[in-house]
Amino acid sequence: MGNGCVISQAAASMLCQQVDGMSLEKARLLTPKDMLDLLGCQISPLRQQCALLGLEALRALLPQESD
User: Where is the signal peptide (predicted)?
Assistant: First the structure.
């Protein structure tokens, strides 16, 4: 298990479940709004960055689209 606040860990876990079996193309289209909607609860603006860390990490790991 990694380090981080409860929100970042929960959000990353939920994101992993969401993208399991998802195509790379569809995963690339995930937005911050999608991530916040996935959490299903209100996150204060100050903590939204925590909730979006997993999505940022996923985007960094996904291969770029080829032209």
Answer: none
